[in-house]
Design brief:
Blueprint: H1 4-7, H2 23-29, H3 47-59, H4 81-87, H5 90-93, H6 105-122, E1 126-128, H7 134-151, E2 159-163, H8 169-176, E3 180-184, H9 194-200, E4 205-211, H10 223-232, E5 236-241, E6 260-263, H11 265-268, E7 283-285, E8 297-301, E9 304-308, H12 325-361, E10 366-367, E11 377-380, H13 382-387, H14 393-402, E12 409-410, E13 419-422, H15 430-449, H16 451-455, H17 468-473
Parallel strand pairs: 2-3, 2-4, 4-5, 5-6
Antiparallel strand pairs: 1-7, 6-7, 8-9, 10-11, 11-13, 12-13
Helix pairs in contact: 4-12, 6-12, 7-8, 12-15
Bound molecules: pyridoxal-5'-phosphate (PLP).
Length: 482
């Protein structure tokens, strides 16, 4: 597709502005060194040409609005459009962030109500809605854990235990707080190795960071024992709630023995996910950690909503003003529409869909962990690779694109070689799931009969194979060729 510069015709304009009045007067404002000597090099096109260019680009993308997107760990579900509308109501978006509390009662009420809903959903006692992503929620949680130990003069607690299946943000967040990471290996059945956990617990243990269901899509059946052992050793328990879609409305995280958790509203609660944000990672805590919550905390007293900054033990401010308000509004709208019982049905259907896909594919693909899964599961390309050594997970993922599906998450989690992590979510119909199964089975057949169609895939996309390392390390961000 030609770039905007290649389509440019000298003198063509998208908008006509009136000549500036008193140009010389305006220029006298701007220091000479900052004044342009030559015109900026911009493409010259009509509005229509520009619109067509960007719409065509958008049509070359795969999106949840155009097709199935089983990207494991990301919960790429349909997010009802009504949530976008509510998230953009001008009464919220045009509120000046410095508005005094008494004139911002509506916004504060929504924030307060959302806090209460999340508290009810998870069983914790207090919340902050400020963190802008799951990873920032983790950081906030770990900062509070650090403050807790320091307040108790328990300065030797410098280690954070993290299973080897964890999302990379977990060790990164703990390390940013100055903790030392101790990796806990998984068992062959994909769960935390209890012997290794016991071995690493000590008077140095500050906390464990755990994802449940874990990133292999498995529920940690020893969870109560794990949190009990960590507490016994004097550590606290952090729950990574990015996989809440599997359990929302079914179990309260606090009852599993955790002290603090974050929620990825941009996975579970109706903010389109992918492409890097904006997001929101509310953090929930029990009474041990509540004093350390970031300021301000939204309060409700004597019929008035307010922002409370007077919290001497707080870890401080972590995000400007109210957090990502639009994202929080979407979550509020979504949860209100479903209700707690509706959320339970969401979770049950997400788990059912994942197990349906796993069972439908297990005769054709190697299943990493055959037991009943939660909302996602992992296949590998072992069988197909055995038939042709050039076939691997990357080639299978590329071939899926020819059938109109976004590939699953590949090569994550790191502990499963050649992983394909599939998360269908609750919003897909049986027909869509069956079509996906059919495509996967056809590709398996191709690995026997025409392996080169897989190895050379994709065949139908506007761009074939890109050099992903080069694209990430040295992206070419120039509009025009030098
Ligand atoms: C997505 C994810 C995170 C990080 O969330 P972000 O909002 O992307 O920062 C953390 N843990 C798990 C298990 C995740 O899936």
């Amino acid at each position: 597709m030609p770039t905007l510069f290649e389509q440019s015709v000298s003198g063509r304009q998208g908008v006509s502005l009136p000549e500036a009045q008193n140009k010389a007067g305006l220029q006298s404002w701007i220091p000479k060194t900052l004044q342009r000597q030559t015109k900026p090099r911009l493409p010259e096109l009509s509005q229509l040409e520009i619109m067509r260019h960007f719409v065509k680009l958008s049509q070359q993308n795969h999106a949840i609005d155009t097709g199935f997107y089983p990207l494991g760990s990301c919960t790429m579900k349909y997010n009802p459009k009504i949530c976008d509308v509510i998230g953009q109501l001008p009464g919220f978006t045009q509120l000046h962030p410095e508005t005094p509390d008494e004139y911002a009662q509506g916004t504060l009420e929504i924030l307060y109500r959302l806090q209460q809903i999340l508290i009810e959903l998870t069983g914790f006692t207090a919340a902050t809605l400020q963190p802008a992503a799951g990873a920032q929620g983790e950081l906030v949680g770990m900062m509070m854990i650090k403050a807790y130990h320091e307040q108790r003069q328990d300065h030797d607690r410098i280690e954070v235990l993290i299973p080897d299946s964890a999302h990379g943000t977990n060790p990164a967040s703990a390390a940013m707080c100055g903790f030392k990471i101790v990796e806990i290996p998984s068992n062959p059945d994909g769960l935390v190795n209890m012997e290794m956990l016991k071995k690493h617990l000590s008077s140095k243990t500050a906390a464990i960071m755990l994802t449940n269901p874990n990133t292999l899509g498995l529920f940690e059946k020893d969870i109560l024992e794990i949190t009990r052992l960590v507490h016994e050793a004097g550590g606290l328990c952090y729950y990574d709630g990015a996989n809440l879609n599997a359990i929302a409305g079914i179990i309260q995280v606090a009852k599993m023995g955790f002290d603090v958790m974050h929620i990825n509203t941009h996975k579970t609660f109706a903010t389109p996910h992918g492409g890097g944000g904006p997001g929101s990672g509310p953090v929930l805590v029990n009474e041990l950690l509540a004093p350390f919550l970031p300021v301000p905390v939204v309060t409700h007293q004597n019929g008035q909503y307010a922002l409370d900054f007077n919290r001497p033990k707080s870890i401080g401010k972590v995000k400007a003003f109210y957090g990502n308000m639009e994202i929080l509004l979407r979550a509020y709208a979504y949860i209100s529409a479903y209700g707690l019982l509706g959320l339970r049905e969401v979770a049950e259907t997400a788990v059912l869909n994942a197990n349906y896909l796993k069972e439908s594919l297990k005769d054709n693909y190697h299943v990493a962990f055959p037991q009943i899964c939660m909302h996602e599961f992992i296949l590998t390309s072992q069988h197909q690779h055995a038939r042709d050594e050039h076939i691997n997970t990357m080639t299978l993922a590329k071939r899926l694109m020819d059938y109109g599906f976004h590939p699953p998450t590949v090569y994550f989690p790191l502990i499963v070689p050649e992983a394909m992590m599939i998360e269908p979510t609750e919003t897909e119909s049986k027909q869509t799931l069956d079509a996906f199964v059919q495509a996967m089975i056809t590709i398996d057949e191709e690995s026997k009969t025409t392996p080169e169609t897989i190895i050379n895939a994709p065949h139908s996309t506007p761009i074939q194979r890109v050099d992903e390392v080069l694209a990430a390390r040295s992206p070419d961000l120039n509009f025009y060729k030098h």
